[in-house]
Amino acid sequence: MKFTAEQIAGLINGKVEGDPQACIQTFAKIEEGVEGAISFLANPHYENYLYETKSTIVLVNDDFVPAKPVKATLIRVPNAYEAIATLLNFYESQMAGRKGIHPLACIAESAVVPESCYVGPFAYVGEGVVVGEDTQIYAHVVIEKNAKVGSGCLFYPGVSIYHDCQIGDRVILHSGCVIGADGFGFAPTADGYEKIPQIGNVVIEDDVEIGANTCVDRSTMGSTRVRRGVKLDNLVQVAHNCEVGSHTVMSAQVGVAGSTKIGQWCMFGGQVGIAGHAQIGDHTLSGAQAGIAGSIRKGHVTVQGSPAIDAKVFARASVVFKNLPEMYQEFNRMKEELEAIKQKMAEQ
């Protein structure tokens, strides 16, 4: 597909600065630009590439002022990063989805799979499963008994959806993702640990995307819930009976312990750990590797460190921590001087 600068500007409400008929057919990073590609400049650290890039069109912010002449045609938009995301989504939507049932797929007689869907080789759709229109189920996906899947979903190879789980519309599950495995529930006894049956399910609402090898465990009773618009990175663990509020995002290796309730529009950096039964308020932001040991009920805060504290306090504490060896030496020196003074006074 080919588009002119004028057509692209119309899609994203941009203003062309240069040749309105400049034509592109692919995307490229600004530092790897090629003729016929569109790139974007959102981070000022990449500005130097703008003057050298071979990309035909570059998206820039409205307030950007180039320091040198630019060969590429510019399209000015309020937010270049959001604009490129819009274009990428548009490009992806133009790609024709697969349809049809592969002869090596296994679909139970009682399952409902519309003709508009695609089911790849060695995929399994179990008894009582209901799948919505236009859903793509790739090879080796397993959807177990009585699960419900919405419309327009995309399940990459190797996804596992356990029995009775519910998946909303336009949900993307990446390879190795497991929805509805048993929660980690065991009761200690004199002879070891007795398994507590996990008889609940997982409910994933609309427009959620879950990364590769991420697990969302079924609840002991009731539902583990991932609300609308949540985005989970690869290798994330959401334990049983948790609730993740709408539009919350988690980077890789975040772990959420059981029965934790997380609010809306929260952000968690890589390797954040959240203790069980915590209440996390809306718009809580957490830096990478933070250990959240308890509730942050009021929300609208940024935390860092382990145990997690206010990020500004953590920054000041980090400065002190780095100086501890010198401070310890100074403390010992002052202690010796004080002892010498006390001894001298005692002798007088």
- Give the C-level CATH assignment of the largest domain: Mainly Beta
Quantity of strands, as a count = 39
Helicity level = 10-25%
Mean pLDDT: 95
The value of Rg in angstroms is 27 Å
Strand content: 25-35%
Largest sheet: 12 strands, mixed
By CATH's scheme, which homologous superfamily of the largest domain applies?
A: Hexapeptide repeat proteins
What is the CATH-assigned architecture of the largest domain? 3 Solenoid
Question: Which stretches are low in confidence, meaning pLDDT under 50 for 5 or more residues running?
Answer: none
Strand order of the largest sheet: 8-10-13-16-19-24-27-30-33-36-38-39
How far is it from the N-terminal to the C-terminal residue, by CA?
96 Å
Protein structure class: alpha/beta
Description:
The chain is of the alpha/beta class and 348 residues long. The chain folds into 3 domains: 92 residues, MurE/MurF, N-terminal domain (Udp-n-acetylmuramoylalanyl-d-glutamate--2,6- Diaminopimelate Ligase, Chain: A, domain 1), CATH 3.40.1390; 213 residues, UDP N-Acetylglucosamine Acyltransferase, domain 1 (3 Solenoid); 34 residues. The chain is built from 5 helices and 39 strands. The strands form 6 sheets. Strands 8-10-13-16-19-24-27-30-33-36-38-39 form a 12-stranded mixed β-sheet, with helices on one face. A 10-stranded parallel β-sheet has the order 9-11-14-17-20-25-28-31-34-37, with no helix packed on it. Strands 12-15-18-23-26-29-32-35 form an 8-stranded parallel β-sheet, with no helix packed on it. Helix 2 links the parallel strand 5 and strand 6. The chain is flat, with a radius of gyration of 27 Å. 33% of the residues are buried.
